[in-house]
Structure formats: structure tokens, C-alpha cells
């Protein structure tokens, strides 16, 4: 047990998928894992461990925003020995060529700040994905025929953004989309020598105002879970 995770030692797998929403963790575990058991419910943040094609997997909510993700990722890595962490979430698109429902694989993440800022001080550390995981996820997405974009994203601290000029600069510099967790996940993975990737479905579009209809959310989320699982175990 840790402060925020009630799982007993050994109840968390080395491979962890991290959706923001705890109920998405429950749905994904019940839909894609065999013998899924709930291993955490502290503060309503649900985590489940089961198997996928014989591989042990934990699917655990991260909450919204980098401070919340940072708490869970720190405890999963440092206390439970997680070695591969894949965020599965949604993002807002920032390029015309990126459409609602498309997949974004975050090669890097730009930020204004992260919970790790106090460590880096004046250094602009470049949070980046694990390359073999990224490549495996791109291959898995191609096999499934899901339109996919690989590149830089923005991990923001705010959903209700008051800086249109910042979004304009991000778009101008080729940033594909905005979400709120990946940069801190990549930084923690680098710090602890583990693998991380963010697989994101475009749920809304900042330039066009398009949004994913709620009826399509489950299908897109399901594709993302399977792509993340295939990537995690490529080469095993
Ligand atoms: N901003 C930040 N995070 C998000 C968004 C957004 O527009 N869409 C989905 N996650």
C-alpha cells in the first residue's frame, strides 16, 4: 500500500495503462483483460490488474492534469515496480490536417511548466517518448487502419485556456494537439529509467470547433487500448 494506491505488493503489473478517467480504467479492464480484479479504489481512483493474451497488465486511472498523474506514476514506478507506462487519453487538435477521431502518438511534449519544474529550474528539458514503444504503437495503428499522426504535443496545466496567442504559436510550430498529462509522465519515466508513451485520440478540434460525438467515444477509446496493449508487448 502507498498513500494513494491500496494495492498489496505484487498486485500491480509491470505494464500499466493510464487513462485519465477511473471509469474508463474499469471499462477497459472489463472489456479487454481476462480475470481483471480491482486493486485500488482509494479516493475513487480505480485500478485493475488482469491479463491480455497471457501478459499481466494493470489499467489505472491517472486523474486529470500533471500533479494528479505525477502522484500515481511516482507510486506505480517507485513502490510497485511499473516498467512500461502508457497514457491512453484524449486531446484537442491544433493542426488542420489532424481530424477528430484521429490518433496522435506524442513523440515529445512541450510545456509551460510541470511538477518537475522545480528540479530543472532554468533547463528546458525535452520530455520524449520511448522510441521502441512509439514505433510499435505506430505499427499497431497502421495495422488497424487508424489515421495516426506522430509528433509533438502540448501538455497544458489549463483546460480553460486564456492564452490564444500561445495556442497560435504552438500551431505555428507544428504542435499536433493539447492535453494535460504526457510531459510529466515522460519526465518521470526518464528519471526512473522506465518506458513511457502517450497514445491520444482527438476528441475536439481547437481550430474547427469539431468534437467527437459521444456515441463514437467508446470505439475510439477501444482502438486506443488495443494499440497500447499491442505496443506494450511487441517483441515479448
Ligand atoms: N485542452 C486540454 N486538454 C484536452 C483538450 C483540450 O482542448 N481536449 C482533450 N483534452
Secondary structure elements and pairings:
Layout: E1 15-19, H1 22-32, E2 34-40, E3 47-52, E4 55-60, H2 66-78, E5 84-93, E6 103-110, H3 117-120, H4 131-144, E7 148-155, H5 164-172, E8 177-179, H6 182-192, E9 195-205, H7 214-232
The protein binds hypoxanthine.
Hypoxanthine (HPA) is lined by residues 90-92, 156, 159, 178-180, 203-204, 206.
How would you describe this structure in keywords?
236 residues; globular; 9 strands; alpha/beta
Secondary-structure content class: alpha/beta
Molecular shape: globular
* CA radius of gyration: 17 Å
- The strand line-up of the biggest sheet is 5-8-7-6-9
The CATH homologous superfamily is termed: Nucleoside phosphorylase domain
Instruction: Return the CATH architecture.
Output: 3-Layer(aba) Sandwich
According to DSSP, the number of beta strands is 9
Q: Quick check: average pLDDT?
A: 96
Low-confidence stretches: none
In whole angstroms, the N-to-C terminal distance is 29 Å
Question: What would you say this structure looks like, in words?
Answer:
- It is a single chain.
- The chain has a single domain (15-232), classed as Rossmann fold (3-Layer(aba) Sandwich).
- It has a 5-stranded mixed barrel.
- 34% of the residues lie in helices and 27% in strands.
- 47% of the residues are buried.
- The longest helix is centred in the C-terminal third of the chain and has 19 residues, at 214-232.
- The chain contains 7 helices and 9 strands, in the order βαβββαββααβαβαβα.
- With 236 residues, the protein is an alpha/beta fold.
- Helix 5 (164-172) links the parallel strand 7 (148-155) and strand 8 (177-179).
- It has helices at residues 22-32, 66-78, 117-120, 131-144, 164-172, 182-192, 214-232; strands spanning 15-19, 34-40, 47-52, 55-60, 84-93, 103-110, 148-155, 177-179, 195-205.
- Bound molecules: hypoxanthine.
- Hypoxanthine (HPA) binds at residues 90-92, 156, 159, 178-180, 203-204, 206.
Amino acid at each position: 500500500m502507498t498513500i494513494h494506491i491500496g494495492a498489496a505488493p505484487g498486485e500491480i503489473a509491470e505494464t500499466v495503462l493510464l487513462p485519465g478517467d477511473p471509469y474508463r480504467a474499469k471499462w477497459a479492464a472489463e472489456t479487454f483483460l481476462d480475470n481483471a480484479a480491482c486493486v485500488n479504489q482509494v479516493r475513487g481512483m480505480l485500478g485493475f490488474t488482469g491479463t491480455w493474451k497471457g501478459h499481466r497488465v494493470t489499467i489505472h486511472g491517472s486523474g486529470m492534469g500533471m500533479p494528479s498523474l505525477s502522484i500515481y506514476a511516482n507510486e506505480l514506478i517507485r513502490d510497485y515496480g511499473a516498467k512500461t507506462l502508457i497514457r491512453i487519453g484524449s486531446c484537442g487538435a491544433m493542426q488542420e490536417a489532424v481530424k477528430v477521431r484521429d490518433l496522435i502518438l506524442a513523440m515529445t511534449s512541450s510545456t509551460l511548466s510541470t511538477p518537475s519544474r522545480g528540479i530543472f529550474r532554468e533547463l528546458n528539458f525535452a520530455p520524449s517518448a520511448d522510441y521502441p514503444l512509439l514505433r510499435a504503437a505506430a505499427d499497431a495503428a497502421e495495422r488497424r487502419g487508424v489515421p495516426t499522426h506522430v509528433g509533438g504535443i502540448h501538455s497544458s496545466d489549463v483546460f480553460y485556456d486564456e492564452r490564444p496567442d500561445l495556442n497560435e504559436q504552438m500551431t505555428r510550430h507544428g504542435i499536433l494537439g493539447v492535453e494535460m498529462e504526457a510531459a510529466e509522465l515522460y519526465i518521470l519515466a526518464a528519471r526512473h529509467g522506465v518506458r513511457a508513451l502517450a497514445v491520444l485520440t482527438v476528441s475536439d478540434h481547437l481550430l474547427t470547433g469539431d468534437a467527437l460525438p459521444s456515441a463514437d467515444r467508446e470505439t475510439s477509446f477501444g482502438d486506443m487500448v488495443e494499440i497500447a496493449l499491442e505496443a506494450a508487448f511487441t517483441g515479448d
